């Protein structure tokens, strides 16, 4: 299908009269992003699911669209009015409490890493993990567990592993054996990927 066929299908079948071939080309090139209604219509015209067009969803709205759940259904499940929910979705700032967060995870089928991301807690988690690996990891078990409700043994094991890995990078930097700049850069890269490294360590203990 060419852009003109896609645009025609979205106009004729989904009532989006402003969709032109040029707009479709802009979506393809990533110059602009389709909105929720446009993405749903685009998926319909292309005979696929919205999730297939999105790739890996990152935002709350993308997770909802990928699972084809209406905003009204999410709002009902978490116990808030749909306008309040949509404002959070559009702003990217989740303000629900722990009970509502658990309900959100259930209705959208969110894994724990995705729940942390869409509820805006990833930056806070990264800061705690950074401190845990660079100082005393045991002091951060409780703060991290408030963000991510993991089994204490799993969490302690993951934090200890991260701490040991990072300290290994730093020991190589300070050694006489030529750790030097490459080891220091390796340590910085480890910190830049600290959240990803954390989830990898958790997965090893829960597999």
Notes on the protein architecture:
The model has no long low-confidence stretch (mean pLDDT 87). The relative contact order is 0.07. This protein has 207 residues and is mostly helical. Helix content is 71%, strand content 0%. The chain is elongated. The chain has 14 helices and no strands. It starts with a helix and ends with a helix.
User: How many separate helices?
Assistant: 14
Whole-number average pLDDT? 87
Structural class of the helix and strand makeup?
mainly alpha
Question: How big a fraction of the residues is strand?
Answer: under 5%
**Which bin fits the share of residues in helices?**
over 70%
Strand tally = 0
Largest sheet features? none
Low-confidence stretches: none
> What is the CA-atom radius of gyration, in angstroms?
22 Å
Outline type: elongated
First-residue to last-residue Cα separation? 43 Å
What order do the helices and strands follow?
A: HHHHHHHHHHHHHH
Summary of the model, kept short:
The protein is an all-alpha fold.
List keywords for this structure.
mainly alpha, about 0% strand, about 210 residues
């Amino acid at each position: 299908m060419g852009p003109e066929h896609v645009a025609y299908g979205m106009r004729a079948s989904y009532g989006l009269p402003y969709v032109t071939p040029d707009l479709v080309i802009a979506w393809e090139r990533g110059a602009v992003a389709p909105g929720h209604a446009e993405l749903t219509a685009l998926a319909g015209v292309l005979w696929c699911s919205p999730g297939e067009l999105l790739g890996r969803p990152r935002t709350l709205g993308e997770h909802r669209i990928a699972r084809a759940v209406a905003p009204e259904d999410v709002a009902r499940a978490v116990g808030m009015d749909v306008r309040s929910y949509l404002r959070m979705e559009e702003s990217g700032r989740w303000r629900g409490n722990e009970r509502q967060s658990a309900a959100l995870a259930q209705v959208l089928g969110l894994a724990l890493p995705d729940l942390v991301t869409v509820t805006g807690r990833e930056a806070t988690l990264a800061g705690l993990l950074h401190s845990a690996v660079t100082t005393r990891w045991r002091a951060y078990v409780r703060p991290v567990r408030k963000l991510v409700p993991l089994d204490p043994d799993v969490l302690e094991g993951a934090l200890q592993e991260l701490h040991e890995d990072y300290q290994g990078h730093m020991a190589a930097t300070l050694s006489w054996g030529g750790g030097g700049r490459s080891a220091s850069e390796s340590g910085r890269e480890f910190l830049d990927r600290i959240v990803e490294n954390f989830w990898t360590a958790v997965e090893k203990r829960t597999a």
